[in-house]
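Lecture 7, part B: from sequences to assemblies.

Below are the input chains for today's worked example.
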Amino acid sequence: MFTKILTRNFDQPDLHEMEVYEKLGGYRMIRQALRRHTPEEIVQMVQRSGLRGRGGAGFPTGIKWGFIPRNSDKPTYLCVNADESEPGTFKDRHIILHDPHQLLEGIMVSAYAIQSRRAFIYIRGEMAREAAILNDAIAQAEKKNYLGHRIFGEDFDLQIQVVRGAGAYICGEETGLLESIEGKRGQPRTKPPFPAVCGLYGCPTIINNVETLINVPHIVANGPEWFAAIGKDPRNTGPKLYGVSGQVKRPGVYEFDMTITLKELIYDVCGGLTENRALKGVIPGGSSVPILLPEEIDVAMDFDSLAARGTMLGSAGVVVIGEGTCMVRVARRVAQFYAFESCGQCPPCREGTAWLHKILQRIESGGGHPGELDLLAEICDNMKSHTICPLSDAAAMPIESYIRKYRAEFEEHLSRPGCACS
Amino acid sequence: MSKVNLKINGKTVQAPAGSTILEAARLAEVDIPVLCHHPKLANLGSCRICLVEIARQPNLHPACTYPVFEGMEVQTESPRVVEMRKFVLDMLFSERNHHCMYCEMSGDCELQNLAYRYRMDRWSFPSPHPHMPVDATRKYFLLDHSRCILCRRCLRACSDLAANHTLGVKNRGADTMICADMDLSFGESSCVSCGTCLEVCPTGALVDRRSAYMGRTAEVQRVRSSCAACSLGCGVELVVRGGQVLRVESDWDRHNEGVLCVAGRFEPLEQTREKITRPLVRRDGQLQEATWVEALDALVSGLRQAAPGGIRAVTSGAVLSEGMNEFVNFFKGKMGVPVHLLEPALAGSELAADGGLKDVDAADFILVAGGDPLASHRVLGYRIKRAIDKGAEVWLVSGKETEMAHFAARCLGLAELDSAVAHCMESRSPVVVYGADLTAREAGRLARLRGKARFIPLAPSPNGHRAQVLGLEPAAGWAGAKALFVLLESALLQEGWLQEFRRPQFLAVYASCRSPLTDQADVVLPALQWYERQGTFINMEGRNVDVHQAVEPGGEGWSVQKLFDRLSGCMT
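Predicted structure of the full complex, as structure tokens:
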């Protein structure tokens, strides 16, 4: 039986108030970290815990922190990725909305670990309320000198600044995010150099997702072995938040260890599909990952099990699609999103996303030509891993999977106008 | 510097550590295609045409940004790479209106050349023929969005080289467009018409209006020369076809590093003045065409009537050194006549001219005193703005309103010069740029900085330095002159000069174009046009720079040397 860790206090009223958070044990873990551990020890603890980034790529957090060059004469920055613009994803927003101090504590411990005195929370522009909550929480913390000079009376300074985005999906990509914080047009940078070496304002920078960071204090407080024991698989450790949406009876954010299966999540946790309709497909990790068919959902919701099924855990934004939904329409809508959000630097993405949208729009409206499904597949294939950032892959992978898995439906759209689904 | 060993297409190469694959490939003489890369611009890595395959790496990587490592094995034309390049080209050709035969750049276009190299024989995707705007609001060039491939070279040239930051991009995805300022038309924008963007554009998106459709690379000649619009002496290449200068481009290997200004690139070819191609002699009160023999006769007799003591000679500081030497030799040396300079001279001859554009790049503090480089020596002005972008501090000391004031950290009056000098003393690698508005006293105060700062003079005339070396000074007046010889060439007369000018009994002018001065003359001697002359001048760095003849003289103009050679013969 899994006991909630990250979201355990989310039902408490006024949790965003400092007194409530502290009464529930808040800001104890940062004190413990500052007094008992060296930064290096915390980095090692996070490495041993097996914590993997919760933003989408699942890169081991401790290893990422280890990329920061030692003895650099430049300051190190911590950027918190709260852009969360992947369609179907809303877990970070949930965390900030309910428990902003937990995020601040996570930032404090992590910033101490990487010896950063300046952290930026880059929050999606649309999340105005959440930005206000964070700013309020920061003001509360500053008042008590939990932020600022010599925080908690220890030899560590930290400032946290909230930076609001202006509504571009691409600013969730870590180097696009850096450009945006610097006040430039949000578009990804070519790597190498990687941000850990040359990031914000040319300084060593770590970019971590909101959910990733709130795990860190728990690892420090309970030890990496405790964390690594959560779940069965040593490569998929710790608690995980899943955001379930679409045609399910009880959509929402749920916390489990990564042994839970997609099937359990949909049917046991969320109560199955609305109007008890049949399942047609599930997007398990946000709109940019390949779709799973109903027969493929008995799979553990972890990074590697989903990869073995040809998809990804991604941002763990589960989108449930029931019978009666037109997959051509889903494909067109997803393609439209990426065509709109491509930053426009790399031709394969700039034009590839536009062509995917154009062709799918034509097919949806009954104007498609035979052979265009192969053309779509060819475009998708050429769009993958040929661009500065993974947006192009994110646009191509789902479309490719829809066509492969629902080919008959696409062909039917080609053979006659109108849609049999609706 | 440590070296790295790698293999490119099986060929062993040794490249300096830190080089990119592209740089290593150039050492190995392997040609990797590029579109967004330009050797003088920061790498972006966005066009994806230079993607190459690296052994044991799952993804392709851009050669222009990826650093080499020991033991690296690179394939630049593998089937996978070629397929990718064809896809990128397909995408680019499907995006706007690349109808090559209607394009000015056809034959010289980097996109077209790549399509040829990768054997594109058809459109894989139907070109949607979108209606793309053409921005023709600029006088000298236009921006045709139909041909734009969004490589952002223009934008980087505008920001990184000219430091003007006019060009940017708007919108996202396939709607991305190059735009000026906050989406203004080019004409209304902050563009200064330096034209650097034109030179880096790989396609026909940015086109020089004057020379469009007048010759492809294979059909023109290029003559390396120096711009004589001001004392910077920027490196230029004159693009010539059929005895005509089509346009001026920059010499990327010279100190101006590819940047020119409107006065050097476009205005010289906007010649609205009437050219003087034959000698003119005043007869019955009218200037009439004459032969050189008649003109020399009239000149000799005019000078003889005034001699001795009544002759004055004046030269423009725009005249090349060889001509100026000859002029001074003749009048001062042979005739004992004082020779003056037409333009004002710079005060502070005790200040060195030991600074160059490289010093501006390296400066942490730049003091601009008594002048506005953005008005008189624009490329230097751009370079100062570039230094500001990189963190240099600029103080302006001036009694006038200047363009430079918008970019200076502090603007002081001339009375506050001493505080700027004091600040300069405290900086690490200061540069002092001083202009003609300084009095001798003020220039004297700057002299304290000798040894500490590098000095760059804003000489009011291109070859003012040579005039200074020859000891020429501006004339106080023409009182007492019975005969006056003006060596004007193509120089423009300063405003107000003519108002104060009192015509002597006899006036001879050597000029390439008609002006109010030549209209008053008794003898007008045709000079070579600026692109017909050959010689050197001393630029602001104190260095001799070459001016090369680009075109055979079209009229009967003589060089200054030839004129005074013949005149010497007549006078003896």
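Note for the exam: The mean pLDDT of chain A is 96. Keep this in mind when comparing with the next example.
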